[in-house]
Amino acid sequence: MDVRGGPSDQEVVARVLGGDREAFGLVIRRYETGLVRFATRMLGSRDAAADAVAESLMRAYRHLASCRDPSRLRTWLYRIVANRCKSYLARRHVGDVTLEEASPVADSTDNEASLERAEQLALAARALAQLSSEKREAFVLKHVEGLSYQEMAAVTGVRIPTLKMRVHRAREALLRALEDHA
Amino acid sequence: MNAIDPRIHQALDGEISRDSLPPELRGTVDRLETVAALLASAPAAAGLEARVMAALRRPAPPGAGARRLVRWLTTPHPVTFRIRPAWSLALAAAVALLTLVPTQEAGPVLGEHEGIAQFVGRFPDARSVHVVGSFNDWRPGTIPLEDPDHDGVWRATVVLPTGAYEYMFVVDGERWVPDHMVDRLVEDDFGRENSIVIVRTARR
Does residue B51 fall inside a structural domain? Predict the structure, then answer.
């Protein structure tokens, strides 16, 4: 659930740092959808993504005082999750996600339109899974999460020209992968 | 690599209007945007908030900090060590260094696996300086440094369990700076450069 309105990120962070631990729940509700979606697309597994985001949020809570600019809490959280995903992929010794994990499963009660949509999503997820982790990260941050190149630079620590090149190459690689799977 | 028409990238990056593209290029833009929209439909993880908040409410078991440290030391990390140039070392010598102080008879009573770390930094215009690190969960305000003679050199002596810790100084409650007087720095998950102190048991 995306929580709009309410106190600003700066106010929420100040409350948490002031001892109101429960206020951190607002941070979770505000950003969990995007963070889990990002981690799912990076790891290709909803379970692994949920674990990665949960660990990242606990880490963020412990280190909240070191978030120097609470107005940029969102990109700070993405950065922690991105690093957690990299650690996870490094432990698996592969940069690619597994295809069966990437495939969504359509419910038997779904109508034809939703089944077709599930197939299209499976195709898109398989194509995305073929990209290197760097290209996948660049494409997902830019086009799925809708971050600006400036925000992407804050998340990844990579310079904007390099990120643009990665996004361009990711688009090209994705189109090729889509053709291969079509 | 089959490069696509640069105008497609320009349209997707918002640099030109997609309406200015010829129809065959607009189709490629549509395809990529459709894929992005599909990938944006990932469901949320059920119960994530409850799971995280339950973990945060749970009191840390005794020794949790030490276990985290052991885990940190035994798992691979992207660590970059840098040797500071000579001028930095000279500056370091001019002020103070992070040192380990052997146990003195009149000093604090140390446990078998404890040592003393001395944190020293030169902040001439500071109103307050604190040290934060993996030993105090990065909580500012818990370990102040002192400058009783007002010479701009701030100090704190802390008893810690033996091991390696990352730390930074917090100046005036808002400015986080690494200790540039040491030559061991590590980049953490948040893109910061932290200093490292290694605490060893005091000679007995």
Answer: no
